[in-house]
Amino acid sequence: MSRQLELFGGPAQAPELDFSGAHALRARLPPHVRFGTSSWTFPGWAGLVYPHGTSEAELRGRGLELYVRYPLFGTVGIDRSYYAPLDRETLRRYAAELPAGFPCVMKVFGELTSLVHPRTREPNPLFLEFDRFERDVLAPVSEVFADHVGALVFEFSPLRGRELPAAAAFEDRLGDFLRRLPSGVSCAVELRNRQLLTHSYLELLRSHGVGHVLNFWERMPDIGEQLDIPGVLTSGVVVARLLIAPGERYEERKRAFEPFDRIVAPQEKMRADVARLSEACALLGKVLLVIVNNKAEGSSPLTVHALAERIARAEAS
């Protein structure tokens, strides 16, 4: 019939992918861990996650609807919200495409988390401005997206040289902000300067029930090194973001890995560290949300599959 429709000008429907193996693998995973990816609009995932021939335009229109069909995806990273706060209409559209209770790891927009302007490097007057956060993030999310907040992530942009404040000064400013957070809002902080990762910073997060994001990123200690810091798991929801191997650079990885349909540079230690993190979260009764970027190894869905296999094997042993 599909061939007949093609002959008469009708659309040919791509065959559904066989996810039986992914369903079986998900059934072997412990319930506390969920995997997802940084964003979802990658046509190179056609044949892995999306039907063959899926276009970028289609993914921008209904990508989450297609994304959540993949059995190994139990969370998703919303990165678009870093560039500007998402309005209620966008959040409603996202919510309509997600199953009930599907948790998202959503970035808070960068104007609030940048101490200096990214281009001019001048001081940013909106840095950690709580009233703006309450109006542009907290209010719309609470009204139309509360069922889908796994964690709101405050990603603090990397600072250079004299821009970097003393750790104590950063903690004072962050503490003033965190004290105003209403109860019941799941938040997490992602650092991009290792100098700010101190024991007093972790104690500050713990005292407010806020998570520390364990990130695999170019200028931070790797996941295993962060996990070895006493008390690093500061809240009941632990977020791990697998982004770029230490020492690498974003644009170089992007050029080398596009169209993100295969593993190019497997990171065996990263995978082992995530498995160890999963074990630690299980022992402490914590939820683990693992967000994978294409730039970590080459293809987020294939990295997710490899991590799921490793954790499932450990669970069975």
Question: What does this molecule look like?
Answer:
- With 317 residues, this protein is an alpha/beta fold.
- The protein has one domain: Protein of unknown function UPF0759 (TIM Barrel).
- Helices cover 39% and strands 13% of the residues.
- Strands 2-3-4-5-6 form a five-stranded parallel β-sheet, covered by helices on one side. The protein has a four-stranded parallel β-sheet with strand order 1-9-8-7.
- The model is unreliable at 1-12 (pLDDT under 50).
- α6 runs parallel beside α7.
- It is built from twelve helices and nine strands.
User: Could you say which structural class the secondary elements and strand pairing correspond to?
Assistant: alpha/beta
Q: Determine the number of helices (DSSP H or I, runs of at least 4 residues).
A: 12
Number of domains: 1
Number of strands: 9
Radius of gyration: 20 Å
Name given to the CATH homologous superfamily = Protein of unknown function UPF0759
Would you identify the regions where 5 or more consecutive residues have pLDDT less than 50?
A: 1-12
Strand order of the largest sheet: 2-3-4-5-6
SSE order in H/E notation? HHEHEHEHEHEHEEHEHHEHH
